[in-house]
Structures are given as C-alpha cells and as structure tokens.
Design brief:
Protein name: Endocuticle structural glycoprotein SgAbd-1
Order of helices and strands: HEEEEEEH
Keywords: Cuticle, Signal
Shape: extended
Number of helices: 2
Pfam family, one: Chitin_bind_4
Region (Disordered): 46-72
Structural class: alpha+beta
Low-confidence stretches: none
Organism: Daphnia magna
Largest sheet: 6 strands, antiparallel
C-alpha cells in the first residue's frame, strides 16, 4: 500500500509544471473558410513565430470526383541563437515540397544521367 501511495506522489510530482514558464501569447490570428472549400489562416506569436497557409479544392485526376485540397504556406521561427528560419511550402498533386535557405538540397544530377533520361524520353519510354 505504501508503494502505491509513493507511486501516486511520484506521478503528481512528475506531472507538476516545471519552472516558471508562462505560455507564449498569440499576438495576431485570423482565419477564413469559404463555401467553395477554399481557406486561409495566419497567426503570429510573441516569440516571433509566424505561420500562414491557404488552400483550395482542385481536380487532381481525370474524373470529376477526383478532387483534392492544394495548399501553400510558410512558417518562420527564431532559433535559440537568434537566427530567423523560414520555410515556404506547397502541398499539391505532386506531394509536399518545402524550400528554405537552411534546408539541404540534393547535388546536381550527373550529366550522363541527364543524357540517359533525355534519350529515354525521346524514345517514348518515359
């Protein structure tokens, strides 16, 4: 029984707030949803974090019922060392694509691969 009581006290201690951290306030926020399925929202918090997104419905396949949501947006935040990082992104029928100066990029495609792909395309195999 003493073990169960000690375990209960331990659970309460672990669940208690740690330190004197106050929640980060949202300093601006707006959102819009339209009857056609398009939407947008944005917010900014007091720590400099900014988020914005917009999207709409789009036919993504050959059939009229092949409807999907395409979205685009960005977010930025400040790292602990004071650098502001921004990510711009698009999510559509081609997948999720993010860009940002701090994100790694693939090396250029070797010339022989570029030539091979062009040859395959010219032969109708791609």
């Amino acid at each position: 029984m003493k073990f169960i009581i000690a375990l209960a006290f331990l659970a309460v201690a672990i669940a208690a707030p740690q330190g004197d951290k106050k929640p980060i306030e949202i300093i601006s926020s707006n959102s819009e949803m339209n009857a056609d399925g398009s939407y947008s929202f944005a917010f900014e918090s007091e720590d400099g974090t900014k988020v914005q997104e917009s999207g709409n419905q789009k036919q993504v396949g050959p059939k009229p019922e092949d409807i999907g949501t395409v979205s685009k947006g960005s977010y930025s935040f400040t790292t602990p060392d004071g650098v502001v990082l921004t990510v711009n992104w698009v999510a559509d029928e081609n997948g999720f694509q993010a860009t940002g100066d701090h994100l790694p990029t693939p090396p250029p495609m070797p010339e022989h691969v570029v030539k091979m792909l062009a040859d395959l395309k010219a032969a109708g195999l791609l």
